[in-house]
Amino acid sequence: MRIFGKESSAVCFVESANKYEAIEEVIEHCSIFSSIADRPSFTRHVIARERLQTTGIGHGVAIAHGKVKGIDHVHIALGISYEGLEYESPDSLPVHFLFVIASSTALQMEYLASLSAILRAVRSDRIRSLLLDLQHNGSKRVIKEFLCMMESQHFTVASLQ
To answer: pTM of the full predicted structure?
Structure first.
């Protein structure tokens, strides 16, 4: 996926209709996860966690996650599904925004800060709408800042409010 003239490493469009296949697709297509030594194991852990309890949080958002040994920072990618995924979310709405997070037990504070930044950003109807219509609204300042946050993996949202 090209965003602002460069290849995206942290955002992709998801074509799968199944949530487990969508998780695999995000991990496979977002190169932010390429430094994870055992991606198949990470994928299995994320899917096993998802099978225990849905990570769909409502408003079209899910935040799937798994722990990885040996990483030095949190890795986060976003898969956007235009069609929406059945995700067993509390509000029963389809998921259009599937975040996948790789963290480790040593990075708990960074994980919580990153998660908080993402949640603050996507609680906005406006940001979710702009993300869903990304092809037409790529030049808008707010969406550009959100995508830059994803690409840089520095999670702050002061200007996204």
So the answer is: 0.85
